[in-house]
Design goal:
Elements lengths: L18 H19 L8 E3 L5 E3 L4 E3 L2 H8 L2 H30 L16 E8 L6 E8 L10 E6 L12 E7 L6 E6 L3 E2 L6 E5 L4 E8 L2 H6 L11
Antiparallel strand pairs: 1-2, 2-3, 4-5, 5-11, 6-7, 7-8, 9-11, 10-11
Helix pairs in contact: 1-2
Length: about 240
């Protein structure tokens, strides 16, 4: 930061920095520090929205550029939320270990002893549309860099009445992806029927990059409404 050539200061002397200049210098130093320790491609809380801004999924904040996000990650709010999340995950891990021990003592089945959860995977969700049928859909990309050998992620659709996290709402369903040693991650979707036709729904796991891809397309309103009507031909594509 140039303290010498600031307007109003003598040669060789550092004038008093304004508040805005001090804040700008602090943000730049935090950004440089974050660049040395954070890889945005592997940050599970980093998300670029549809308008080009950057969001922190942990703190629910919006930033205009990656530098602002990086500076935010070094701030007190983000660090406090990280500490709280870490403490909660540790507590949940202890509770899970205790429940497994109770099951073993009572003669119940063991739940994969020796596998410790390491948090949720990084993910990206993209809205897609079939140019021919105009069907809406979603493309999921999940990152499992530390997945166990010979393990392939598994997917499951769950109704709102199966889950115990929030009050059931018949207008929604849940899409779950599980792969040890990661926590099972869930996405809340509209309660619409999934088109499982050829090329509409598929899963693919890249053994090299450890990325897991899932594409799903929702049926059109016509197909949902008349698919169970006998004698009615499906919509031609």
């Amino acid at each position: 930061m140039d303290y010498q050539n600031r307007a109003g200061s003598k040669f060789g002397g550092g004038g008093v920095a304004s508040q805005s200049a001090t804040n700008a210098d602090r943000r730049e130093r935090l950004r440089q520090l974050a660049l040395e320790t954070i890889d945005l491609d592997k940050d599970p809380y980093f998300f670029k929205n549809h308008v080009g801004s950057f969001e922190c999924r942990l703190c629910l904040t919006v930033h205009q550029n990656d530098g602002s996000y990086l500076a935010h990650t070094q701030g007190r709010k983000h660090q406090t939320n990280l500490a709280r999340r870490h403490a909660r995950e540790q507590k949940e891990g202890k509770d899970r270990d205790a429940s497994q021990m109770i099951g073993l003592l009572s003669g119940g089945p063991a739940k994969k002893p020796g596998v410790y959860k390491i948090g949720v995977p990084g993910y990206r969700v993209t809205k897609i549309r079939d140019p021919q049928t105009r069907q809406n859909g979603l493309l999921f990309q999940l990152e499992f860099p530390e997945i166990l050998p010979n393990v392939v992620p598994k997917v499951r659709f769950m109704s709102a009445f199966e889950q115990k996290v929030e009050d059931p709402d018949k207008n929604f369903q849940y899409f779950l992806v599980a792969a040890d040693p990661y926590e099972t991650i869930g996405f809340k979707l509209q309660a619409r029927e999934i088109d499982r036709g050829e090329g509409k729904y598929y899963t693919w796991f890249d053994e090299d990059s450890k990325d897991f891809w899932v594409q799903l397309m929702f049926k059109t309103e016509r197909d949902e409404r008349y698919s169970a009507v006998p004698g009615l031909a499906p919509l031609r594509r």
